[in-house]
Amino acid sequence: MQSTSTTAFHKHATPAGVLIAIGIVFGDIGTSPLYTLNAVFHNRVITEDVALGALSAIFWTLFFQTTLKYVIITLQADNKGEGGIFSLYALIRRLFGKWIVIPAMAGGAFLIADGIITPPISVASAVEGMQKISPHINTVPIVVCILILLFIFQQFGTDKIGKIFGPVMLVWFTFIGVLGLMAMSHNFAVLKALNPWYAYVMLSQAPGGFWLLGSIFLCTTGAEALYSDMGHCGRNNIRVSWIYIKVMLILAYAGQTAWLLQHVGEEIGTVSPFYHIVPDAIYLPTLITATMATIIASQALISGCFTLINEAIRLDLWPRHRVVFPGNIKGQIYIPFINWFLMAGCIGMVLYFRESTRMEAAFGLSVTLTMIMSTILINFYLYTKRFPVPAIVLITGLFLAIESAFLTANLQKVKEGGWITLLIGSCLFIVMVVWRSGRRITTSLKKIVTVDGYVELLKQLSTDNNITKYATNLVYLTSSGSPRRVEKTAIDSILSRSPKRADIYWFVHVNVLDEPYSMHYRVDTIVKNDIYFIEFNLGFRIEPRIDYYFRQVVNDLVKSGEVDVSGRHEQCYQESRIGDYKFLLTDSFLSFENDMPFVKNFLMKSYFNLKYISVKEWVNFGLDPSNVTVEKYPVVVTPVAYTPLLREH
User: What is the pLDDT of residue 328?
Assistant: First the structure.
């Protein structure tokens, strides 16, 4: 059940909420008028059929893909108030088997790949407006500098500057709408293109008409953000604001189309049709506003990538990285590794393509694949909500048909540069597959034993004064969710290596929930004042600060009398009521004693390499390094069958 506050948050639309949604959600889709029609007519002579057909196709793409699929249908699939492809996966994974993770990982991987091309093309398309003033200006250094500053700024959070996102984007959308209205004031007949017939004429009769869908698709590339940002803005705030946004977008595209109809038989050149409809008197302010809008759009997408990766980490689909919470806004996070990875990718894109018209070749292909994956997941979500089967088939079939057409048209971009985002997305997908598979294999090899069989030994060790006390409280993190079962490596660590005497042994399990913000725990007393099991149940967006949570739980247990520490001799010398505590982590490494087939060998070596460069367990669980000891143990997947040695006589 959703909480009352979450339901109210999504149910009500407020002026402040709508303004926030305009600033956060629609940056990507709101800057698409800068380059969409420019992509359609790149190296193409302007014709009336293509101009009107492009406007018609844009209108109906925004209707089907953005309004119908995301605003009306997909926003219903909220996971305790949160949205995004991994939230959707977490919502349905228990009902449809393990394979459902494949489209979730693929969709997430290609969405991150899109995060590498969107900031460069958005910023470049705005900055290139300077070429109308100075045709020979080199915009590459300017774009690179803006991107570097943008990524450097991420570590400081967006608390303060985020407050101007909404007003700036409201000004931007109002401006492009008014600009479009002015541009078509002498030719309102251009609105006849809203008739789908014109799209059909373009696709069926214009030379290469069908392949223009690859460029038309750019008008809806930001639609996925509508769903991903639902937790920040609220469902109805997004829906209400979209009404205004869509009207302004259509006016902007219609105004550019009116200009195109005035220049039939010509080529648009290097400057986007958007800048051609800007009056000279306000050209420079328009250039500045457009650049600010693209920076905000890029900021929103970068933040979305951080959220996406954090969810993947919590769901065990991605190697662990250090996650920082730089601001006071709920859900605002910063992941240094991903930040610099995205920055390197974005700068590489700018240096490789140099112009936004060339970047358009790589843009859109990865998002199309993401949308297809989200359609597959939404199909299963509709089943969970007991929609009529004919309705599910109709909805899924409609969106798959549309997105398959866009994908087919976008495939022509592969040789023109689309291979880059495909390669990046595929590599990210492989990383997810390797990490998930490696985790599953190593987890399956862990031997789980019943604590009850070792209770007497642990009690005896706890009171054996002949052995130096290791810690007052010795804490083991365990992957076992059962209070009576733990890894054999933990028991061996206590008893078999160098026996570790402690007053109390704690086994702590962290359970990541399918919902985002839950925080609760339970305690199982195995032997009072000797052995306890704690399970922390944390939402997949909660930072697991286990050190802090553990101290809080133990203090609560002492207050309630469930733990009695009054008999400790050293208590009078220590400020803490619970005494000292030591977290002992067991970490695995791939043993040389393996004889695996090639594929499994590659998989496991890749997994342990990823594990080596990922953040350490004590960092991931928010543990103070002064209280942590790490013990290594080997992983043997397929033992080597050695030939026995023969002794010489």
Answer: 52
Question: Which range among 150-159, 173-182, 545-554, 628-637 has the greatest average pLDDT?
Answer: 173-182
Q: How confident is the model at residue 181 (pLDDT cuts 50, 70, 90)?
A: very high
State the pLDDT at residue 331: 54
Q: Which 8-state DSSP code applies to residue 156? A: G
Q: Are 147 and 357 in contact (CB under 8 A)?
A: no
The per-residue pLDDT for 575 is 53
In sequence order, which ranges of 317-418 are alpha helices (DSSP H)?
A: 336-353, 356-359, 365-384, 389-410
| 3 state SS for 428-470 | HHHHHHHHHHHHHHHHHHCCEEEHHHHHHHHHHHHCCCCCCEE
353-376 per-position pLDDT tens digit: 888 877 877 777 888 899 999 999
- Distance (Å, whole) CA 439 – CA 20: 39
Cβ(34)–Cβ(290) under 8 Å?
Answer: yes
- pLDDT on residue 254: 95
Q: How far apart are CA 169 and CA 294, in angstroms?
A: 10
CATH number for 4-439: choose from 3.40.50.1820, 3.90.550.10, 1.20.1740.10, 3.30.70.270: 1.20.1740.10
- Strand segments (E) across 432-576: 448-450, 469-477, 485-487, 501-513, 519-527, 531-539
User: Which of 492-496's residues contact partners 24+ apart within 8 Å by CB, and which partners?
Assistant: 493/584, 493/586, 493/631, 494/458, 494/461, 495/454, 495/457, 495/458, 495/461
Q: How far apart are CA 490 and CA 497, in angstroms?
A: 11
Q: Find the mean pLDDT for residues 13-34.
A: 84
Average pLDDT on 142-157 reads: 87
Q: Which two tokens mark 568?
A: 């400790």
DSSP assigned state of 82: B
Average pLDDT, the chain: 85
Give the whole-angstrom CA distance, residue 48 versus residue 265. Answer: 9
Nearest CA to 585 among 615, 611, 538, 617? 617
Q: Which amino acid is at 124?
A: A
Q: Is the dihedral of CA 11, 14, 20, 22 positive or negative?
A: positive
Could you tell me whether strands 448-450 and 531-539 are parallel, antiparallel, or unpaired per DSSP bridges? unpaired
Tell me the pairing of strands 501-513 and 469-477: parallel
Judge whether 382 and 395 are in contact, CB under 8 Å.
yes
> What is the model's pLDDT at position 519?
87
Q: Is the dihedral of CA 265, 268, 274, 275 positive or negative?
A: negative
Q: Which amino acid is at 212?
A: L
> pTM for this one?
0.83
pLDDT (average), residues 303-325: 84
CA 304 to chain centre: 6
In angstroms, how far is CA 607 from the centroid of its own chain? Answer: 21
pLDDT, position 311: 84
Asked if 328 contacts 93 with a C-beta cutoff of 8 angstroms, the reply is: no
Q: Using an 8 Å Cβ cutoff, are 55 and 198 in contact?
A: yes
DSSP class of residue 335 equals -
What is the phi-psi region of residue 354: left when phi exceeds 0, alpha when psi lies from -120 to 50, beta otherwise?
left
Sketch the domain layout of the chain as residue ranges. Answer: 4-439, 446-635
